[in-house]
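Example for tutorial group B:
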C-alpha cells in the first residue's frame, strides 16, 4: 500500500472534485449523456435501443468517437517517431 503526504491527498481530492464538476456540467450540456464515463453511455444505448432505436444514434456516435480517440492514442504510443517528439 502506498502512503501519500497530506498535500498529495488534498491534491487528489481536488482533482476528483474537479472531474466530478466537469462531468456534471457535461452531462447537463449534452442532454443527459455522459462525457467521461463510457459505461453510462453504453447503458443509455441499451435503454434507447429498447425504447426508441432512433434515439440510439447519439450514444453510438459518442462510443465510436471515444473508441477512435483511444485507438489513435495507442497507435501514437507504439510509433517511435511520436514517442521521440514527446520527449523533445
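The residue assignment follows.
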Amino acid at each position: 500500500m502506498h502512503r501519500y503526504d497530506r498535500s498529495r491527498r488534498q491534491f487528489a481530492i481536488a482533482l476528483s472534485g474537479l472531474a466530478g464538476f466537469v462531468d456534471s456540467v457535461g452531462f447537463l450540456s449534452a442532454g443527459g449523456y455522459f462525457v467521461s464515463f463510457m459505461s453510462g453511455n453504453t447503458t443509455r444505448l441499451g435503454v434507447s435501443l429498447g425504447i426508441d432505436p432512433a434515439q440510439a444514434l447519439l450514444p453510438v456516435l459518442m462510443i465510436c468517437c471515444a473508441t477512435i480517440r483511444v485507438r489513435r492514442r495507442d497507435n501514437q504510443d507504439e510509433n517511435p517517431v511520436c514517442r521521440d517528439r514527446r520527449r523533445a
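The helical segments are 6-29, 38-51, 57-78, 80-87. Compare this with the pattern of hydrophobic and polar residues in the output above.
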